[in-house]
Amino acid sequence: MIGLDRVSRTFPTRDGEVTALSDIDLRVDKHEFVAVIGRSGCGKSTLLRLMAGLLAPTSGTVTVDGAPVRRPRADVVLMHQLPALLPWRTALGNVMLPVEIRRLPRADHRVKAAELLDAVGLTGFHHRHPYELSGGMQQRVALCRALIQQPRVLLMDEPFSALDALTREELATQLQAMHMSAPATTVFVTHSIAEAVLLADRVVVLSTRPGRVRQVLDIALPRPRSFGHSAHVAEAAGYVAELHDLLLHD
Ligand SMILES: Nc1ncnc2c1ncn2[C@@H]1O[C@H](COP(=O)(O)OP(=O)(O)OP(=O)(O)O)[C@@H](O)[C@H]1O
């Protein structure tokens, strides 16, 4: 589904070239959920921007469905750390924005938008404006705005990092439920090892600059998974410890 073959990306800076990513080989299968973790500055956002067609690789190729990525595609959606909602639109109006931009049938999508908002716990808030919503609620709206586009590929750049710990867990759990019922091929960048273990089929650990694939860990835990208490709490803790060691001893 997504393929990176020997992908490198450098940036020119005043002090010479910075190599953000070097020789990345990575395959993400259809409907797979891959989490990417690594120290700050190791090239995680650059990786997503390459997959989204917002950046070109300096060398190597990035493909989606076998086709080289040369520009953004309608079926590949990138979700950022901050919600960036339009302040004059309601929650529902913000979710409907990509539908309107892409001139998709409005009536069907309005029903779908309302269902999505309900699914992330925003029943009763469909007609509120962003200033009336908490940061966590705004990010839920941004998640709905991404999902209404029914992306085949969903790229998420630390989408929950601006939220408090409990809201973050709640949203990750909701994302898991949504991925189980309608899976998009997902690449999820996070600084939270626990979040990666909750959500991912595989966790890609990048090394510090230049970012290279240091290790890929399969998370063989049944779903739905939960933070804390579960029948698999010991196995989950084992994965968390292994990833922690990999990051710490880079
Ligand atoms: N447009 C740019 N121009 C120059 N250097 C850049 C540019 N974009 C990224 N870089 C550099 O590339 C490296 C990787 O940046 P990137 O934002 O991908 O890292 P990251 O892993 O997402 O970091 P963080 O976890 O802190 O968000 C950094 O050293 C950064 O300074």
From TrEMBL:
Residue stretches making up the ABC transporter domain: 2-233
Gene3D superfamilies reported for this sequence: P-loop containing nucleotide triphosphate hydrolases
InterPro entries documented for this protein: AAA+_ATPase, ABC_transporter-like_ATP-bd, ABC_transporter-like_CS, ABC_transporter_ATP-bind, P-loop_NTPase
Lineage: Bacteria, Bacillati, Actinomycetota, Actinomycetes, Micromonosporales
PANTHER family assigned: ALIPHATIC SULFONATES IMPORT ATP-BINDING PROTEIN SSUB, TAURINE IMPORT ATP-BINDING PROTEIN-RELATED
CDD domains: ABC_NrtD_SsuB_transporters
Keyword line: ATP-binding, Nucleotide-binding, Transport
Protein name as annotated: ABC transporter ATP-binding protein
The keyword Protein transport is assigned to this record: no
Gene Ontology terms, MF aspect: ATP binding
